[in-house]
Amino acid sequence: MFHGEATSPHGVEYKTICQRYGWNEEVQAASGDLPSIQKVGDLKADAVIEKVKKLLALASSSNPHESELATLKANQLILRHHLDRSRLSDQRELCVVTVMSAPKKNALMTAIYEILTHFLVKPVLFYGRAVVRLEAAGTREQIELAQYVAGFLQTELERLWKQQNLKGLRAKNSFYTGVARGYSEKLTSTRNDLTPEESRALVTIEKDLAADLNFFMGGLSQSYSGQVLDSSAHEQGKAQGRNLSIQPAVKNRSGFMSLLN
Q1: Which of 150, 154, 174, 215 has the most CB atoms around its CB within 10 Å?
Q2: Is this model's pTM higher than 0.85 or not?
């Protein structure tokens, strides 16, 4: 990210980064086989993820009540699962995975960034040499779901744009921003129906994730946009976002990077 691809594992550059963030000798000497730390055999987590995917797909129902109910149930299922996991252990695991990359930040990446904030992961933008990476941090289940969502959105948002009778980069960027805003409004509205326990769990999960990332990364990169919106394209995007459902997508095969056990 900072020195390009031609660096040796645990070389001078790596140790320099460790020193920059105040990581001790134990971290500097750590190693592991990435395939061996990927999530395997967690049947309960796999079952939860599959149920959430099905609920997200049902959120496209033409019946507004059924659509909102499916979205609410998906959110509740995620929350309850992670609340149960936290009760079993005080030890948290933080993983980071790349879900999207581009030569520079664009409106599509920013839209996916905003939508991912509603899936109990912390999206982070990393600016490297000639590339910007959108990464998602969270538990293994959370980032697997984030990969699924981001992989679908990259194709779906472009497909929705091509269906619009709009032209120009400004209109396209405004449309993507509107989709994210519309989908976010739909998901945010369901939080009012969470139980008090679920609401507290949501706050706790988000605070813990932010604290872990701040400790390991020394601060987070936020996604800001200073664009001047095309109001018509933005409103069309919001309408599409409110009706957006997460359908099955090709699974992103990016590897997991475990940061905290």
Answers
A1: 150
A2: no
For residues 223 and 117, is the Cβ–Cβ distance under 8 A? no
Which DSSP letter does residue 59 get? Answer: T
Which range among 45-49, 92-96, 219-223 shows the weakest confidence by mean pLDDT?
A: 219-223
CA torsion, ordered 245, 249, 251, 256, to nearest 10 deg = -20
β-partners of residue 135 are 98, 124
Q: How far is residue 199's CA from residue 207's CA, in Å, rounded to a whole number?
A: 12
Question: Could you tell me the strand order of the sheet in which 131-138 lies?
Answer: 122-128, 131-138, 94-102, 257-260
On whether the CB atoms of residues 160 and 179 are closer than 8 A, the answer is: yes
**What DSSP string describes 151-195?**
HHHHHHHHHHHHTSS--SHHHHHHHHHHHHHHHHHHHHHHGGGS-
How deeply is 74 buried, as exposed, middle or buried, from its count of CB atoms within 10 A (0-12, 13-18, 19+)? Answer: buried
Using a 10 angstrom Cβ sphere, with 0-12 exposed, 13-18 middle and 19 or more buried, the burial of residue 88 is exposed
Q: Tens of pLDDT along 32-86?
A: 444 444 444 455 666 777 777 777 776 666 666 666 677 667 766 766 666 565 5
Count each helix (H run) and each strand (E run) in the chain, helices first. 10, 4
**Euclidean distance between CA atoms 204 and 85, whole angstroms:** 13
> 201 by DSSP, 3-state: which?
helix
Of 108, 249, 90, the C-alpha closest to 174 is 108
Q: How many Å separate Cα 155 from the centre of its chain?
A: 16
Q: State the sign of the Cα–Cα–Cα–Cα dihedral 153, 52, 184, 162.
A: positive
Tokens 């998901």 correspond to: 187
